[in-house]
Amino acid sequence: MRTAEPLHLRLLRLLRDHGTISRAELADRLEIPRPRLLGELDRLVALGYVAEAGMAASRGGRRSTLVELNPGLRFAAVDLGASSVDVEVTNGRLEQIAAYNENADIRSGPKVILQRVNELLAKAKVDGAYEKLDAVGIGVPGPVSFRDGVPVSPPIMPGWDRFPVRELLTREHGCPAVVDNDVNIMAIGERHGGVAHSVDDFLFVKIGTGIGCGIYLSGDVYRGTDGCAGDIGHIQVDSHGPMCTCGNVGCLEALFSGAALAKDATLAARNGTSPALADRLAANGVVTARDVAEAASEGDVTCIRLIRDGGRRVGGVLAGLVSFANPSMIVIGGGLAHLGHILLAEIRSVVYRRSLPLATGNLPVVLSELGPRAGVTGAGVLASDVAFEQAS
Questions:
Q1: Residue ranges of the alpha helices (H) in 298-364?
Q2: Which residues form the HTH marR-type domain (predicted)?
């Protein structure tokens, strides 16, 4: 059962998510006596979290004062992928003030990658995006101890095991920081501003370099005892399958992920089963998952089969999760979501066919609405939450 949130958190989140509100409406929405609200608002104004914003329209009596989050609040949102870095600076409403995106290899190690993050944030400061940061939220592509703020034995992140990411960012920027895995922040982002807005129980499935699942139960992210809930990419789907980066064989992401699809596509190009991929290999020297998507949209039979095979494997795993958790929505995101409706149709088909009718009778399986911005959006939400917690 979800525990009751402190009043200050409820109030600050309401202003974050809904914007400027009158004191009278705040009291109504929060269902608290007005004197108690006014005392809490005075406290939050003194702490620098809230500011007055003029007078509200009359509701038939004395006009109420409008309040908003302090316009000077600034949060940093960072989404680290296997091959990219996304950094945003937002205001208290999580509206973008500055944004940077560039290619980066997570295997370069934490010192190199986090130094680049700090350089991008320093550039934002020079460009006038902020004077000081109030919190930093960051997602990384591997298992994370949310409690300790460190990655733990991440398969595709050599050198990151137990690296003090939260501690380093807190020290560098003089504000609280929060660290989570990339699929959790994508789920949080989609819940905040995407297709899963107001959905309390859903699965967000990221299909990219790896495969992971963000789990929302009763309106909160479920991370598990140690923070590794949702690591579905390492569920075995073929006991005779290829070796996975985790050291086991036949894992889902060893059979279908960005790297696995590129490997299968290269084989199809070289053995001549896909003329479209053979042409792309000859022209570019490599073939990628995006080449598969483009060739499939042109009707290439081999590429369509590769996508359907992957969708069937993902759908099989999700069918088990649907029977176990009974979510009210499944959202598909990540880099391979651009494979589009061929992938989505196959996942849907398997989930609906293999799960109980009671669990799938009203179960939408949809593509992410936020796409590549899901991660930074969720990192911003986490940053704001950890900043607001400081107001206790």
A1: 301-325, 341-354, 357-360
A2: 6-52
